[in-house]
Amino acid sequence: MSNHVLVIGGNGGIGSAIVTELMQSNLTGSGDSVSYPPQSELDVTWAVDEIQDAINKYTMSLDWPVAKGFTHLVYCAGINELAMIPNIDYKHRGNFSEILNVNVVGFARVLAAMIENNPLRSVVAISSDAAYRPMRGSLMYCAAKAALDMAVRCAARELAPDIRVNAVSPGMTEPTGMQEYIDKTVPAFRGWTSEEALRYEISQNPMGRRATTEEVAKLVTSVLFGPEYLTGAIIPINGGR
Predict the structure, then answer these.
(1) Where would a tag sit more exposed on the chain, N or C end, judged by fewer CB atoms within 10 A?
(2) What pLDDT, in 10s, does the model give residues 98-110?
(3) What is the reported pTM?
(4) What is the distance between the alpha carbons of residues 71 and 200, in angstroms, rounded to a whole number?
């Protein structure tokens, strides 16, 4: 049985590492494929019908036979903007609504668009340990990832036994654009230098370092392709923090 994987957010950071791991993995065969449309072709903030049309159009542009559609989905779209509670922006780009739209509502929209016309067997969303670990200036992001975790659990219950739905929940991971942004922003919140902020972060992690994008990608690939009884799980990869 052929595997055709659609990776949303596969053009950078963790998503790019997932695409590379999937292409190199023994879990996909010569008749399989991995596709990762750019945001310009599939924006997760669009309405469900627009996402469905975009998926259909993108699918028809690919070189492999597409009559039966995608069998696996990785949802790796995510944005973050740090802000203390009095400074949360509810009106402009990067505001609370957009963070919710990309991190969790977009997941539901993509899933709704795909389950009707694609023979999905397995879905993995990229969550974060921020879903259960409160952090200063992260109300918007933590709330969005907590909502994504519950969305994954609800979807797993609703779509079983035909479609497995799980999440992989990384802690601090590098190199990613989001991590670079956090490294520049967090020190200002704490009144620390960049070196002090990194030293404190590492001191809180039993493994004494951050995850790599390659490590996260290996776990995502493993979860995506099995075991068959695994669904509704939120699997952490955060060094034991």
Answers:
(1) N
(2) 999 999 999 999 9
(3) 0.94
(4) 42
pLDDT at position 189 over 90: no
Encoded tokens for 132: 């259960």
Q: What is the pLDDT of residue 67?
A: 54
Give domain 4-173+212-237's CATH number out of 1.10.700.10, 3.40.50.720, 3.90.1150.10, 3.30.565.10.
3.40.50.720
